[in-house]
Structure formats: C-alpha cells, structure tokens
User: Which sequence fits this backbone?
C-alpha cells in the first residue's frame, strides 16, 4: 500500500515566536525532507554578525524592518521582502525595529 503524502500547516507564524526584550530568539518550525525553516525574532538593535550558510538560503520578513549586509551591499528589508542567498555568501543583519523573519534552508536529501 502506498503512503499518502503528508503536509504541515502553521496557521499564523506570528504566534510561533515572541520578540524578546533586548534579545534574539530562533525557533525551528519545520525540519524534514531536506527543508529547514527557522523563525527569528529580534528586538530593536539586535543583530546577527557576519556569517554564511553551506546551502542556499531564503529570508522573508513577516514583521518589522531590518538592514541586511549581503556581501559588500547593504539593503533595507520590510514585511513582504524576499531575499535569496547563494551558499557561502557572507551576510549579516540588524533589526531597525522589533522584527520577525523566516529563514528557509534547502539541504540535499
């Protein structure tokens, strides 16, 4: 007998994390079939310093405003913004106001 395809529904991602006072919070909300989805919540001024991922990554803003450094370029991102980064691209971000972003990593299965 063939197994039926499955699915996951998160009705409201904003309910999955709270923005901490003077801090940063990350929470994995999905990790299966080579796909890892992490919510990050940042208070104003909080940041992730220069780093890179070994796989391509996508950042989507669902609340707040941030400034991202992508290689040598700086961009401001707002709710609805979508950023794709190739593997090994050095990047950083700082929250300009309380913010929540979705990070999606596609790992080989």
Assistant:
């Amino acid at each position: 007998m063939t197994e039926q395809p499955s699915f996951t529904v998160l009705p409201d991602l904003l309910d999955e994390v709270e923005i901490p006072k003077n801090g940063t919070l990350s929470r994995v909300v999905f990790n299966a079939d080579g796909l890892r989805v992490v919510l990050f919540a940042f208070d104003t001024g909080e940041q992730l310093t220069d780093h890179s991922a070994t796989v391509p990554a996508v950042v989507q803003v669902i609340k707040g405003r941030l400034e991202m450094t992508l290689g040598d370029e700086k961009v401001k991102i707002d709710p609805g913004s979508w950023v794709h980064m190739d593997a090994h691209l050095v990047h950083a971000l700082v929250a300009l106001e309380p913010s929540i972003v979705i990070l999606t990593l596609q790992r080989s299965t």
About this structure: The mean pLDDT is 95. The longest strand covers residues 24-32. Residues 23-106 form a domain with the Jelly Rolls fold (CATH 2.60.120.10).
